[in-house]
Amino acid sequence: MRKHGTASWSQVEASITDFPPCSKLRSFWSYADCGYEKTRHTCTVPDRIDACPVPRLRLRNGRLNQIALSFFLFVRDIAESDLVGWIDGQLKAAARAPVADLEKARQEALIGPLREIFGVSDKLLTMALSGLLIGSREQRPLWFEAGVSMIVVDTLVHAFLTRSGILDDCGVPHPYGPACYAEGGCAEIIRGAADRIDARTFNPRFPKLFPRWIQFALWRYCSAEGLDLCNGNRLPATEPCQLGYCHLFRICARKPLKTA
C-alpha cells in the first residue's frame, strides 16, 4: 500500500458526481461487469473511461479499484452512508433466530449482503469483520458476541480436519468450498469443539465460548507463519503424514488429502 496507494472514502466520494459518466456508477445495483483493467486501461464501456473515476485510484491492480468503488456504493446505497448503523440493524434483526442458530444467523446477516460487493470472498469478509467486531467489546457488546463466534474456514483448516480424520468422524466429508459452512461441515465441527473448551483457562479476558479463537488456533498450528506443522509445505498431498515430532501424531488419523 505504501508503494501503490490506498482508497479513501473522501477520495471516492469527491469523484462520484450526481451525473456519473458511466451508467454503471449510478448505484450499487447497477455497478456490475465494470471490467476495468489497469495495465490495458480498458473496461466494458471503453468510450467513457477517460472521464471515469474508477481508474483515478492509485491501487495495485484494477480489481482493487473495482472493489473500492463497489464497497463505497454499498455503504452509500445499502447502508445509507452509515455502516455502523447498518451493522447494528443487521445484528438486531438476526436476534429473531432460534438460540441454537443465533451464531450462524448473525454471521450470515452481515456476510450475506456484503457478499454482493465485487471481488470479496466469505473468508476475506469474515476475517475483516471479526476483528472489527471483537475490537468493539467495550462500546458494543453485541458486536463482540457476534465477532467471537465468526469462523473462517480456509484451506489450511479444512486440510487439517481432513488429514486428522476429524472431518470423517464428526462431519460430512467434502471438498473445500461452500460445504465447509453447511450442516455437518468444518465450521460446525469447530463450533462443536468450542462448546467443549472454556477459553478463559487460556486467557481470563477471553469469553468462555470463543469459536473464532479455536479456529485461529487451528490455523496457527498449520500456518507457515505459526507452528508450521500441518501444511502442504511439510506433507505431500498423496501420502500420510510422517512427522513423528508433531504434537498430535499419536492420535491423528494421518490421512492423505488425495489418492495417488
List keywords for this structure.
mainly alpha; single chain; 260 residues; 10 helices; 3 domains
Structure, described:
With 260 residues, the protein is an all-alpha fold. It folds into three domains: 9-78, no CATH class; 83-148, no CATH class; 155-251, no CATH class. 41% of the residues lie in helices and 0% in strands. The protein is built from ten helices and no strands. It is globular and about 65 Å long.
Number of strands: 0
**Major β-sheet profile:** none
Q: Would you list the SSEs in sequence order as H and E?
A: HHHHHHHHHH
Evaluate the radius of gyration.
22 Å
Structural class call reads: mainly alpha
Short description:
With 260 residues, the chain is mainly alpha-helical.
Topology (elements, then pairings):
Blueprint: H1 9-15, H2 62-78, H3 83-94, H4 102-114, H5 122-134, H6 141-148, H7 155-163, H8 166-170, H9 186-195, H10 211-222
